Amino acid sequence: MKSWAIRFSILTVICTFCLGMPKANGQTTYTLKPTPKTVAWGYYDAKTPPVLRVKSGDTVEIQTLITNSPKRLEDAGLPPDQVEQSLRDITDQVKDKGPGGHILTGPIYIEGAEIGDVLEVKLLAIKLAIPYAYNAFGPGRGYLPDDYPYAKMKIIPLDEKRMVAKFAPDIEIPLHPFFGSMGDAPPESAGRFNSAPPWIMAGNLDNKDLVAGTTLYIPVHTPGALFEVGDGHAGQGDGEVDITALETSLIGTFQFIVRKDKHLKWPRAETPTHYITMGLNDDLNACATLAVREMIDFLVTEKHLSRDDAYMLASVAADLHITELVDGNKGVHMMLPKSIFVSASPK
User: Fold this and answer.
1) Rounded distance between C-alpha atoms, residue 288 and residue 110, angstroms
2) Based on the structure, what is the number of domains in the chain?
């Protein structure tokens, strides 16, 4: 009886953490849920043991958790029975945490990913995991810390059928779910890197344009890449000025592809309609400078323009957006519409 119980326990763990389903093309689809054994709380680190290993081309359905404590959610008015049990388990059992505050699912080791490669992350689908979000600010945080030297949290119901957030009786916000934090491990020399500021390994980008159907390209800085994801948002404005968005739990379907033919210094992205370059720095001007330089580099290397034409095209056709202002390193991203690249007309 004891040996049967042990085998059953092991099977349960495997099914809960990383259930793999083979596809006809040889690729595999896995499921990864957040548990005390499958999250990294507040950091990206090249020395973190992976919780799942996949091959290039494999797909993983990953569930992420709302980043907050059950007590704070309940104090803000959320009924206790709406707090996810996995959040209670992780809050109670995970002691190795920080220096940041995000609960990140992972890391995932992608076989074949080596330093200098690029990890292509396709966001195939994103769906809500719970019917609510919260927004909050606190003293000393956000873009206007002196104006709001106190804390407040608001629980915001989400209507998945209509895809709106009911912010107030007469205010509804359209939902565009995305993951605020998606990244791989930084260089080993960086040690345990705070989950708050985005950097060369992406991380807490808080880019509201990275919704389902987009692709993120992340430079690889350690073998296996060690991808983590979390900080689910049901929606957000550019800037994220009070330091939180519509914070919620999400379920995303990701496909991971190791790119040996790409070599990037900074993360880039692509939507069905736009190319995106990014600038990440604690100075907003430096962010804009980096985003523009990255766009010029993209146009030279990928579209084979001269540097002069690339600079001109960035000026007349691309748009700069403030990504976020509140995470230590700020963010600016530049978006160039794909529609401007017109195929030659047939003769």
Assistant:
1) 32
2) 2
